[in-house]
Amino acid sequence: MTATHKKLISYSLKIAIVVFAFWFIYHKLSTNHDLKEFVLLMRATPERQIWLVLSLVGLLMLVNWGLEAIKWQRLIKTIEVLSLWRAIESVFCGLTLAIFTPNRLGEYGGRVFFLSPKRRIIGVIAMAVGNIGQLVLTNIFGSIAVCLFVYRFNLLNQGLFLALCAFASAFCLFFFLFFFNIKWLNSILLSIRWTRQYQRFYRVLARYKKIELTKILFFCLARYVVFSTQYFIMFFWLIPELQAMDIIMMVCILFFVQSSLPSLDLFDIGIRSVTALFFFNYVTDKNAAVVACTASIWLINIIIPAILGSYFVFKLNFFGNIQRS
User: Fold this and answer.
1) DSSP class of 239
2) Do 100 and 21 contact (CB within 8 A), yes or no?
């Protein structure tokens, strides 16, 4: 394949990705009734207050994905050196591809195509380590929140509640130990004969020492705090009578349930709304405000970054020869 053919195919793919992403976004926004609920609620709210709150939540969105870019830069540093700006470009590009792919699989492609061709598969493994770290915290805080929820509303008898707590503790301990011993996975894969031929890809797992995994987990924790704060601000603003601890508990459960269900980012808003309504019905009857909160966060955290990332799609390099910045 000549350089001209590669360039033509590359531009065609990039244009197709951007057009496809924008079509998906337009289709979802134009038919989204949850966002309409948010707009209706805003009509009775002072404009200055709206701008202040949404600007704060939008700023936290940038902090959230900025932390993810730094985490990605650290994860990949033993494989390939990326500047912080290039890490940011790859993260936002990945968000654009994630918007129309199941379980955000496109996010992997959006990032690793910023790496050299020979390091892209290894990059997928490195990114998976970071995602596992985020999942560990989501499951731990979510499990604790579920136990508190069951206790708070007395949903089980004492024996079943203690069994639930025991199971949740074992569940959390498993994820915690697994993450800090991620190299075990490397040993397991090496013990399987047919996977040994791919060891050049997954042996990167053995490079992550506990001190480095601890740092990665701190970035995951920082991200968790940031996007939890976004939800807290929105719920406290639109439903001020809610108790702070109730909001925190429900948000942790919401993240936990979301992480457990397969989804498509664009249709994820439906899952978020149904989940939020089910749990928040225990503490408030303002269903419209609950739906509006989840829809607004979905718009700010998913849709806006995907739109911003469309610019960086044109910096994808499918055939190598990446120009370093």
Assistant:
1) -
2) yes
